[in-house]
Amino acid sequence: MEKKATSPGRRQFLKTAALSACGALCAASPVQAQTSGEILRVWSCGGLAEAMMPANVAFEAAHGVKVAYTGAFAAALGKSLLGSATADVFAGRVLDLAKKLRQSGKMASFMPLCFTRYVLVTPKGNPAGIQNVMDMARPGVRVVLAPEASPPGGAAALKILEKAGILEAAQKNAVTMGSCVQRTMDDILSGRGDVSIVEYRVTKLPAFTGRMEVVNIDEGLFPPPPMTFTVGVMTSAVNKPLAEAYVRYLTSPEGQAAFEQHGFVPAFSEKGRQLVEKYGVKDV
Amino acid sequence: MSESAMAESGVAGRLRVLRRRLVQVVGAAVLGQWSLYGVLRCPFVVPYVSCQNCPVITCHGRLVSMYWGFWLLLPLSAVVAGRAFCGWACPGGLAVQLLGKFAPFGRKWGSALIRVAGAGKYLALVVGLFVFYAMGQPRADVPIRIGGFFESVALTFEHANLLWLVRSAVVLGFLALGLLAAGAWCRFACPTGGVLEAVKGLSFLKVFKTSACNGCGKCTRVCEMVTRPEEVNCTNCGDCLDSCPVGAIGFGRKPREK
Lengths: 284, 258
Hints:
The structure holds two protein chains of two kinds.
Chain A: H1 8-27, E1 39-45, H2 49-63, E2 66-72, H3 74-82, E3 89-92, H4 95-103, E4 107-115, E5 118-123, E6 143-145, H5 153-163, H6 167-172, E7 174-177, H7 181-189, E8 195-199, H8 200-203, E9 212-216, E10 228-234, H9 240-250, H10 253-261, E11 265-266, H11 270-279
Parallel strand pairs in A: 1-2, 1-3, 6-7, 6-8
Antiparallel strand pairs in A: 3-10, 4-10, 4-11, 5-8, 5-9
Chain B: H1 3-40, H2 64-81, H3 84-88, H4 91-100, H5 112-117, H6 120-134, E1 144-146, H7 149-159, H8 162-177, H9 184-188, H10 191-199, E2 206-209, H11 218-222, E3 249-252
Antiparallel strand pairs in B: 2-3
């Protein structure tokens, strides 16, 4: 049988791929961890993730420990914690969940961490001239809603419209009735819609920051809780003093700054203290 | 073929497989994390397609360059070399092929059952399209936005709804089936493989067989997809290039034969 010649192109491709792989593997040398080997297991509401990550890095650097962080839908994590799952610290969104964890003996103590707030978002330049919530009922304004979005996103927006007395009119103006807040933002960025209601923190996500106009909503129209985020030490904490130090860090001026930067109202600010009183964020 | 020629082709064949494995390892290094997330942590029913809207922030599918790079290069690879992605770069393909080394069944080429089962990947494709377009690509699980991999996988399974559990059970079931029937997932169930299979006839380059083929089946015996060049499930992997005793297999543009 005649020996088949492999084309130079294919051979060259294989050599290049092999060299690229070696290069990639060499470049990806692991970073030396400067930690004591101790691990702090922190769970939080997924909405806090962008703020928690830099806070975790700072805490790791200051204490020489590793923070094993999980961020996801707080109600789901809470359900797991009320079952057999364990963590050292839990920062959840719903005040009632924190109270339930305390009452069931799963959480040793909790503190207010921060609050969310709602805003109107419009495309750059605010082409429809949106000034307040009432404008969402104006004929011809293209409203973007996401009633099916996971809580509190979609339902909260509907509640605000209901409190403003324009739910029906705004729904008539809806060009999108979606199921995802992030897709809502895409509709606004692309100009398919003129206005939507989102949490202010969403406008601070890297994908959206600075790419739209933000109009404040009168606080009187805000929906009932969940507006509050709390942070607490779990009774299952392996190293309770370390978990308490972490909570202290998150509620310190430095820790609170991370939450403010990512669109939350820090609990330990003048505004935050008013909200603590308003929503009764007290340990049970 | 003389004994020395046979020995030479055996060495060349092993080198060929080794080179392909190396490329597959590179593929796994680049796409492996995304691949695993898609199966075990993606909250959507159809994974790998809604990544830019997904809240799981640690998944590599959220990287714009990774996501768009993959979805632009995949059709390009199909135009150039048919189903070559499956045999050369897919991390799932690598896993399936390695599992297939232990498989005692599924290597009987051309059996009626195997032919019927091969339509499964088109069925999977139709179901995927239905879920995406008709059902609106539902999010059927709680996205674990960030967290240790195994802990997050456990939470993902704990909070999944039925639809998510069914799709994951099908994928993992077919992967496990690969321990019994060689290449089960790639040959019978992969929807991406189904798309590539459907369009591979249009590719510029391919592993082909000429009319000199006498149907001895030696190429099938070295093939991890248990097929022959140009036939169903051929991924242009090239493992068979040195296996043909009559030199009927080649790679490139298929020569015209009278």
